[in-house]
Amino acid sequence: MPTATSSEKDRLEFITVAAEYCIFIENSVSTDKQIFIKQAVKYLPTLYLKTILLPSVVDFPEEESERTVTEAEYENVRVSIETLLGTDDMYLTTFHPEIQYSEAPIAASISEDLADILQELKDFLFNCQLGDEDLLSNALDNCLYGFHQHWGRKLLNALTALHQLQYNDDKEKEEQDEFLPPINATSQKESFLHHQLRDDSDDL
Length: 204
Fold this sequence. Notes:
Layout: H1 6-26, H2 33-52, H3 71-85, E1 90-93, E2 106-109, H4 110-128, H5 133-178, H6 185-203
Antiparallel strand pairs: 1-2
Helix pairs in contact: 1-2, 1-4, 2-5, 3-4, 4-5
């Protein structure tokens, strides 16, 4: 059985991770918020790594691949994530194409970032399923060009915001635990014995 070359292996791994990301995002509506955040900060770095292992495409491809994700599908995903994250969906970033025109950080949205990534990957995966090598190669070039131009940045911005949410929540839980009274096993035992002695005396 022939083995895949390094470039073929990297492409197959990218396709696999892209498909897993799409499934994860589309199932976000039925996910708990904290579980979603923890899973997202695992998927996004893996997706970024598998993407940069592929040859970089910095020039616009000669042919644009077929787009299949509709505006309604995109909006459904975006709204689902926005609803799940609530007020935590918005974040401020200085890494934005329009930052040169602003004196302050620009507001961005995790749900929009993740939906944009999903749109790029689903369009790519659709072309993969057609079974034509030329279409696959062209779709991959378009996807990688999009990564270079916008969705790679969106991925990192969303990851930064989600990282902040995950570890801020952990820190808040630790701070809440600090205000809980310590459990004293000795005092608990004495209290229990005192209660038992009082019950025994009542029975006399």
